[in-house]
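--- STAGE predict ---
source: upstream dedup step, 1 unique chain passed
mode: sequence only
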Amino acid sequence: MLNVTQIRPPGYLHAHALDDVAQYLAHMIAACGRDVRRSVNQLATDATNLVVGGHLLGPAELPPGSIVFNSEPVAEHGRWPGYAALRARAIGWDYSPVNGAGAVVPFLYCAAMAQPVRPPGGALVFYGALTPRRVAILDGLRSAGVPVEVAYGTYGADRDARLARAGAVLNLHKTDDARTFEPIRCFYPLHRGLPVISEETTDPAADDFRDSVAFVPVEGIAAAFATRDPARAARFARTSALARIAQLVG
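--- STAGE serialize ---
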């Protein structure tokens, strides 16, 4: 039995940014034939714990054999007291090989999360933390006439309502460092057939997405939005991660 437990400190809204991750991991582990349950803030003693959002846990003791899924860039780990020590005591899973935090989990197609494809709407939607670099790029797109919407701090049904009106979803790096790809922001809209435009990256984790995501430099975003192709996003349904995740869970 695997216990996929999501860490959500009381009152911390942004913990919900990892709801999709916990849902995906639970669905995919079950599809591999393993018994799995989901929980919130519960470290089990009768199951192997797979901790999502471990950076929010603080100094803590994990039961032996626990797995910590790292969702944060390595450069930011110092922001969370005790996180490095927590990871050192656990089995590491990660979204990118660039982070060097352990086994890489591919965030690809999950049949249980797929939604009916619908015609795309009119706006280019970005959701994620608004760093100065991202704000400057979004402001530049608006000045160029691109209809941009920001859904920062919007999760669950409210976030999905924004996506239902989207013409495409935009993935941007936090900083000028292009070495890391953010699949978690991309795989969810692709399950809804939404075109995804991503800033170019050198991360090998992006290779599985190149048939279904438009990778462009910053100066090419407006053109990619104007020529977005929902058929490209639909090719995501052919990229299964089951075999690789089955190797991780044994």
